[in-house]
Amino acid sequence: MLSSAGYDPGMTELDILVQAITEDLGDPSDWGAPVEFRDSLALCALNSAYSLRGNSAAARNVLARYRALRPTADTDSGRDLLKAMDSAGGPANFARDILCNESKLPGTNRLRPEGIYEGLSRLAALDTSVTSAEHLRAAAADGSNSARAAWLSVKGFGALAWSYLIMNAGVSTETKPDVMVQRYLARVLGDDNKLSPARTRQLLQLAAAKLAVEPRDLDRAIWLHESPSK
Fold this sequence. Notes:
- Helices cover 58% and strands 0% of the residues.
- It is mostly helical and 230 residues long.
- Helix 2 (41-51) packs antiparallel against helix 3 (56-69).
- It has helices at residues 13-25, 41-51, 56-69, 78-87, 91-98, 112-124, 133-141, 146-152, 159-169, 179-189, 197-211, 215-226.
């Protein structure tokens, strides 16, 4: 039974969610733009990897340090980031000396740049080489799972890592039902509802359609609403 107060008992989960979003998040025109790096696979990779169970401020600092190193960061390809790591002496030195952030990928003892290096190398090695954000958007749109499989083959990268990577590249139909987004939906729909990531994703897609917004924009707005450190 849905436990949220103030809702008509005849309302569906989707009805309740849409009403809560309208009340909590306000006019979508005020939500602000999502995080996006349409011309830089390098920044997509860095931001997505450092956002996995990470702090937003830390991810922003990482991007700022990479931009200080690379004036062309906002148009850098995956290969540019690989070369930058090689020039620093490898991913470990890059994490320590350039990014000043040696945090690990969730559930591993691997530095985040180690995973990024492996993932970008595997994307570049595909038959249809993926080395730019444009390539990544095309790979996400063509229905092929090869790019997704390459990224997910990296230890420490799960489904959310792929979702956030392509969202950063500009795929607006994607969502990433992380802890904060799931927490919001669970609270709105009642603590007895054990929503799986797949169900959370489905509800976000349906709610976005009802609200006439992009799923990525809704995901971001909910995340910001729940985040203690915007």
